[in-house]
Amino acid sequence: MRFWEHYINISPESRDKFILTIAILLILILSRILISRTITRYVTEARREYRYRRILVYTFTMLLILLIGPVWIRDVQSVSTFLGLASAGLAIAMHDTIANVTGWLFIVWRKPFKVGDRIQIGETAGDVIDIRLFQFSLVEIGNWVDADQSTGRIVHVPNSKVLREPLSNYHIGFAYIWNEIPVLITFESDWQKAKTILTEISRDSVEHLSEGAREQIRKAAEKFLIFYGTLTPIVYTSVKESGVLLTIRYFVDPRQRRSSEQHVWEAILRAFSKEPDISLAYPTTRFYKHPEPPSCRT
Question: Does any domain span residue 217?
Answer without folding.
Answer: yes
